[in-house]
Design a protein that fits this description.
Layout: E1 5-11, H1 17-23, H2 26-30, E2 36-41, E3 53-59, H3 65-77, E4 78-84, H4 85-90, H5 101-110, E5 132-134, H6 141-152, H7 164-170, H8 195-198, H9 215-222, H10 228-239, H11 243-253
Parallel strand pairs: 1-2, 1-3, 3-4, 4-5
Helix pairs in contact: 9-11, 10-11
The protein binds iron/sulfur cluster (SF4) (3 copies).
The site of one iron/sulfur cluster (SF4) has 13 residues, from α7.
Length: 261
């Protein structure tokens, strides 16, 4: 008989929206209950074991010394760390604030005497090794079930090898780029069913960069109609604390405006 996996679910600073998605998976999780035990989940159960754990799923980004220390402790106790959602994977919405700006805003909001304990929001991987990231803000329920199934079967979860454009075509949307509207779909990992585009909004990239993302090619097309300010503003929503993403955009932006062929 295969060993039952022990899973712990933790959260740091975030809106807990991804855990809400997780908690709606009741039937799907029950179908897998002979393969794993959730032994620690503050949000959903009273009894919580201390570890060690085979897999620790972590939502949110650590922004205090205590949270960073707990993350490091969890790394020691866990066979694998899985980041749950954009906050944990790529710093997400808490990371919109530019590096070093946090202290200034604390003082402005709470007054000059306030002694801030918060630090910049960074992805979990900035502090510890992370085995897998379940992307999205919030995560997609289907992707979450797929990942848990793969983990419960002892497999290494796979990332989607297609972009949001694939989801978008399947949903029957007209491409925003054809109407000179910004969209990060071509460089973003698929799996979200293109919910934003179907709802009339651009893709901001909450599913993270796809493996062979052609940032240069996308910026070339965006520069037909969008200003660098607009592109940087869009980039800031989810990619603000991933230096390699920002560098690739900045290098592509240096080329200047491009003309539609
Ligand atoms: S990724 Fe989005 S939905 Fe999930 S916890 Fe962070 S802010 Fe909330
Ligand atoms: S609208 Fe965005 S996601 Fe959809 S096909 Fe165009 S670029 Fe891709
Ligand atoms: S369309 Fe883009 S921003 Fe919207 S959910 Fe999908 S990956 Fe995230």
């Amino acid at each position: 008989m295969t060993k039952r996996l022990t899973i712990a679910i933790y959260d740091f600073t975030d809106c807990e929206g991804c855990e809400v998605v997780l908690s709606t998976l009741k039937e799907n999780l029950l179908a897998l209950e002979d393969r794993f035990d959730i032994v620690n989940w503050r949000l959903a159960q009273d009894a919580c074991k201390d570890g060690p754990y085979d897999v620790t799923i972590i939502e949110g980004t650590p922004v205090t010394g205590d949270e960073i220390a707990l993350l490091k402790e969890l790394r020691e106790k866990s066979g694998a760390i899985v980041a749950l959602g954009a906050c944990a994977s790529i710093a997400g919405i808490p990371g919109i604030m530019d590096k070093g700006e946090r202290e200034k805003w604390y003082k402005k909001i709470y007054g000059p005497e306030y002694k801030p304990i918060g630090v910049d929001s960074l992805p979990l991987a900035a502090y510890v090794r992370v085995e897998h990231m379940i992307h999205g803000c919030p995560v997609n329920a289907g992707e979450l079930v797929r990942t848990i199934e793969e983990l419960a079967s002892g497999k290494k979860p796979k990332y989607r090898d297609y972009s949001v454009c694939f989801d978008c075509k399947e949903a029957g949307n007209t491409c925003r780029l054809l109407n000179d509207k910004i969209c990060f779909g071509p460089i973003t990992q698929g799996g979200c069913k293109a919910v934003c585009i179907s709802g009339g909004s651009p893709c901001y990239g909450c599913f993270g960069l796809r493996e062979d993302a052609n940032i240069d090619g996308l910026v070339r097309i965006l520069r037909w109609a969008s200003s660098p300010k607009e592109i940087r503003g869009h980039l800031k929503i989810f990619f603000n604390h991933i230096p390699e993403y920002k560098d690739a955009f900045e290098s592509a932006l240096k080329r200047g405006r491009t003309k539609r062929p």
